[in-house]
Amino acid sequence: MRLPKFEYAEPKSIEEASSILSKEDGAKILAGGTDLLVNMKHRVETPAVIMSLKRIPDLSFVRPEDGGIRIGAMTSLKSVYSHPTIAEKLPGLALAASSVGSYHHQVMGTVGGNLCQQNRCKYFNQSRWWRSSRALCFKAGGELCHVVKKKNICFSSYCGDVAPSLLVMNAKALLESKEGKREVEVESLFTGDGKSPLGLRRGEILTEIRVPRESQEGFSTYMKFANRESIDFPIVGASLWASPDTKTVRLAFTAVDRKPLRARKAEERLSGGLQKSALEEAARLVLEEAKPVNTSLYPASHKRDVMGLLLESMITKFLGR
Amino acid sequence: MKHSVALSVNGDTYDVLISPNETLLDVLREKLGLMGTKKGCDLGACGACTVLVDGEAYLSCLMLAVNAAGRKIVTIEGLAQGGELHPLQKAFIEKGGLQCGFCTPGMILTAKAALDEEAVPTEASIRRKMAGNLCRCTGYKKIVEAVSSVAALSGKED
Prior knowledge:
- The structure holds two protein chains of two kinds.
- Chain A is α+β, with helices and mostly antiparallel strands.
- In chain A, about 30% of the residues lie in helices and about 20% in strands.
- Chain A has two domains: about 1-55, Uridine Diphospho-n-acetylenolpyruvylglucosamine Reductase, domain 2 (2-Layer Sandwich), CATH 3.30.43; about 60-115 and about 160-320, Uridine Diphospho-n-acetylenolpyruvylglucosamine Reductase, domain 3 (2-Layer Sandwich), CATH 3.30.465.
- In chain A, strand 13 (about 250-255) and strand 14 (about 260) form a beta hairpin.
- In chain A, helix 11 (about 265-270) runs antiparallel to helix 12 (about 275-290).
- Chain B has a five-stranded mixed beta sheet with strand order 2-1-5-3-4, with helices on both faces.
- The longest helix of chain B has 18 residues, at about 140-155.
- The radius of gyration of chain B is 16 Å and the shape is globular.
- By secondary structure, chain B is of the alpha+beta class.
- Chain B folds into two domains: about 5-80, Beta-grasp domain (Ubiquitin-like (UB roll), Roll), CATH 3.10.20.30; about 85-155, Orthogonal Bundle (DNA polymerase, domain 1), CATH 1.10.150.120.
- In chain B, helix 2 (about 85-95) packs across helix 5.
- In chain B, about 45% of the residues are buried.
- In chain B, strand 1 and strand 2 form a beta hairpin.
- Classes of the chains: A alpha+beta, B alpha+beta.
- At the A-B interface, helix 2 and helix 6 of A face strand 4 and helix 3 of B.
């Protein structure tokens, strides 16, 4: 499968990269390439300009500092989970990064690229030939969402592994452009709109993730249910963070909605104590908060069942720590 | 617009004129004639196109060739030294770690990256790192045996 034609840029600085993004309407950022290039081969993304961030210095690092841990956006997933401080202090993030794709994807893929990956759907992530048997879906440039049979809306799922683990750690994202920098919650990067899932402003580039110090003190884990353990995107992925006194519990899911989802109602219920009645109610509450639809080979009802199972498994792991 | 790029492959430097939309896999096979690197799914799901980039296992079907400038690339053709096969290549032959042979270059290069990273890995670690390399003859057991035998050997040398 040939890639479609595009112009290629290798900016040497963030300012230069930001100028290209602001100027060129159809420009896309290339990090590890393991998501974008597959979509381009399938012709569901056909950017006019590809801009690689590889020549911009100092975007690949893990720096434990007083205020927390800073991770450069171009740091490979393998470098993230292999870093001793992350493996020890943020096991939930290490587990999430090491569950992405196969070993090769972890070597090539970056933490920033994983966060900013495209949403997925069984009608979207297909070859042009496969998709030619019906009208283009809304996300691919047509009118109709084949999942919900409605016009001008897209219900594709966000399926990144790393996002929920950062959500429960209250991680921040540093966004840079030629106008300046701003720090936002990782959670607020995501719009919840399947057609354009990322909410960056024009010319902005994700350059760094910051995990606050307090998140290093607690328990964290990530659990994933996928078709094959060796390589697949999650059918459902879930992250849990709990404070040492177990009074604060944070919970997030991936692949169950159009964005990675913090399950705040369930968190509130669990933060009162982890007795059996609270767990049962939390398992019911997470289903109210998520909106899985039939975007993968597994039906939404199965995703809901798996959400409850993963919640139970994570709590069991926490209690048995 | 075509780009003039110097690619370092198996210790040799090749000056090539390439379009940005050419993958490293296509350039290796079609421009440099190095057919040892195989094209399987071409979507990063089978591992047949694995090459070493600065010593790490990369999927050459998901890497733009223009992005490979300045990196050290090793393909299966570059493993044997002075006419002698690499220990992993010998082990695959001795243990019967190949049948049709299509997945073998990718398997051996992933195994090399894994062993360079961890000289005496557990079998679980070998299996985890090689899980992205598919063998449709399903000869996985002998492949893992071949890699483990080389790992045990390098362990003894230490």
